[in-house]
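The data are quoted verbatim for completeness:
=====
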Amino acid sequence: MEKNQNKLKLFENKKIRYVWNDEEEDWYFSVVDIVEVLAESKDYQAARNYWKVLKTRLKSEGSELVTNCNRLKLQAADGKMRETDVLSTKNVLRLIQSIPSPKAEPFKMWLAQVGNERLEEYADPEKAIIRSADYYRAKGYTEGWINQRLQTIEMRKELTDEWKARGIEKETDYAILTNEMTKAWSGLTVKEYKQKKELKKENLRDNMTNIELVLNMLAEVTATSISKQEQPQGFEENKNVAVRGGKVANTAKQEYEKATGLKAVSSLNAKDKKALEIKKDEKE
């Protein structure tokens, strides 16, 4: 799953962190931030304690809310990315029902407004592009890299839309197809690729150099084109197309390395954002 645009909005001067999930097409919100608002906690620690007690109670009651609670890295008050409990929009509404609060109805209206922003982006894609660019700009990425990254987001969306049209629905299947394609062009699985870049749960594409983004995009564009032509049915046929798309990019990768004497697959990550655009020499 590709999660991007770690965001922050204010609800009555309280910070609510949330992130968009591209594949599920839904927002995920920080549970503790919401609890702090609804329970009117005096501070963040009090909200954490409240959520800890509530989660234990809900679990003992067999509530699906706890089962559906995920953990993602969101930016903490100290600026570091830390794992925190998150819930999808639908499950946030369930959470609201579990906390008696005069803030419940105003918060539901706020939640609807957040969802409306995404609908506006679908109606006017330029708004989504602007918001994405602002997000990466705030993170310190260079303008050249941002332009390249935005193109890859568009191509990724076209590929996932094509997979949906071909009957691919499970999140695990998306992950497997992506893994097979990545391995076909880069020679590394997604896990191995992230290890090379010393990543954990960070988004791999947000840590790619320009040439890596281009090659990955070539694999996805090629797979999308083949799929539209051949209309594969079932998981195995779609996997075959994904691998073929990756192999086209692998050929381009080999030509790039032959012409430049540089490795296309880099250990660089977003800790050195300028280097992602102007790639340092990495001789083979």
Observations:
- Residues 234-260 form the longest helix (27 residues).
